[in-house]
Amino acid sequence: MPEGEGIRSPEDIRQEILRLVEEYHAAAYPARAFQAGQSRVPVSGKVFDATELQYGVEAVLDGWWTTGRYARAFESQLARFLSARHVSLTNSGSSANLLALTALTSPKLGDRRLKPGDEVITTATSFPTTVNPIIQNGLIPVFVDVELGTYNIDGGRLEEAVSDRTRAIIAAHTLGNPFDLDQVMRVARKHDLWVVEDTCDALGAEYRGRHVGTFGDLGTLSFYPAHHITMGEGGAVLTGQPELRAIVESFRDWGRDCWCEPGQDNTCGRRFQWQLGKLPLGYDHKYIYSHVGYNLKLTDLQAALGLAQLAKLPAFIDARRGNFERLWNGLSDLQEFFVLPKATDGATPSWFGFPLTIREEARFERRDLVQFLEGRGIATRLLFAGNILRQPAYAGIKCRVVGDLKMADQVVTRTFWIGVFPGLSEDSLDWVIDGFRKFARTRGHQRR
Length: 448
Known about the structure:
Distance between the termini: 78 Å
Strand content: 5-15%
Order of helices and strands: HHHEHEHEHEHEEEEEHHHEEEHEHEH
Number of strands: 14
Helix content: 25-40%
Strand order of the largest sheet: 1-9-8-5-4-2-3-13
Mean pLDDT: 95
Largest sheet: 8 strands, mixed
C-alpha cells in the first residue's frame, strides 16, 4: 500500500466491487443480435442487467443470508404495485400454492376450515402443483373442463360442480389470461366457498381494472426464471386478510405460533407469558407450534434479485403484450388451421405465452408442426399437464369429474404454446411467423 494511504473502509471496497460487477456484466453478457436459422427462439427466459448482479452481491456482502432487508422491501413494493394488503414470500410458486390451500385447513379458522374429504373445485387442464395441494391435504378435487381459446376454467359449469361437500375453488389464470372472476366470485359468494387464485403465470394481469390475485381469499405467484420476474426460485402468497397471512407464514415457518422476523425476539411483548396446548405457562413462544408446518422460506439473496427485477416489471409486461400482439397479427390469416388465443371478456392479460390449438379439420398433427418448428430453433411447450387425469401420477386418485372434459382432451392432443417473453426481438418473432407460414403452405392442405 502506498505511503500515506490508510486502510480502505468496507464501504469503499463494497463500491469498488459493485463497479467491477457492472464491468463484469458488460463483458460476460454482451447483447447478441438474432440470426435467423442460427439463433434459438426460446419460450421463456430471464432478462436482466448488471443491477440484478449488483443487488445479489450486496446481499451476500451483507452477511445476512436468510430473509432480511431485501425481502421486506420486495414484499412492500410488490404489495404496492398490486394494491394487495399482504405479500408473504416463499421459495417457489408451487410452495405458494401448497401454503395457500394448506392455510385453509388451519384449526384457527374454526368451522370454515377445510377437512379431509371436503371438495375443492379445480380444472383438469392445469400445472400439477395447482392440483397437488388438494390431494396432499386429503381433500377431493372436483375437475371442471376449460374453454378453448382462453384455456381457463369453464365458469358455466361451476354451479353444476358444487355439492354439499364443496368448500373451495382453486384455479389458475392460464398463461397470463385471467379467468372469468365475475362468475367464479359469484358462485363462491353464493355457496360460501374459499377462493385461491393461482396467479403464477399472470403477474400484472388485470380484470376490470383490478390486479388478479387480489379477488380471492388468497393468491399465489411464482418467480421461477420462466415467469414475469425471477429470483431464480421463489414465490409469494397474497391475501387481504391478516388472519390468513399469519396462518400462511406459520405453515411456511416450521408451523410456529410466533410471528417474529428472523433475528428478532419478543415482537408480541409476551414471549414468556403464553400458555398454549398442554405446554407449561411461559414456554418460549419462539418454540410453540400451532401447525404441522414446513420450512419454505427463501433467502435474502433471492429477494435481492427479485427487487431489481421488480423495477423492470411494467416494461416486461408491456413487452409481453407487444410480442403477443405481433404474433397474433402475424398468424391471424392462418385461423383455418388454428384456434388463436383470446382474452377473457373484461380482462387485460399479462401474457405468459401464446397458445394455439390445431383445428380438427387441419390436415396435419401437432407432432409434425412442433417438430418442424423445433427444427428451425423455435421452442414449443405443451399446455402443462393437458388433461391431468391422463397423467400417470393421477391414475386412480379419488376425485369427482364434472362433464366429459372434452376440451381438456383436445388440449392433450392439439394444443401447444410459444413464447412472448421480453427477451424476444422483432426479428425472432418474424422468424416464428415465417415458420408457421412455411409449414401451412407445405403441409396445411395435404391429406393426413
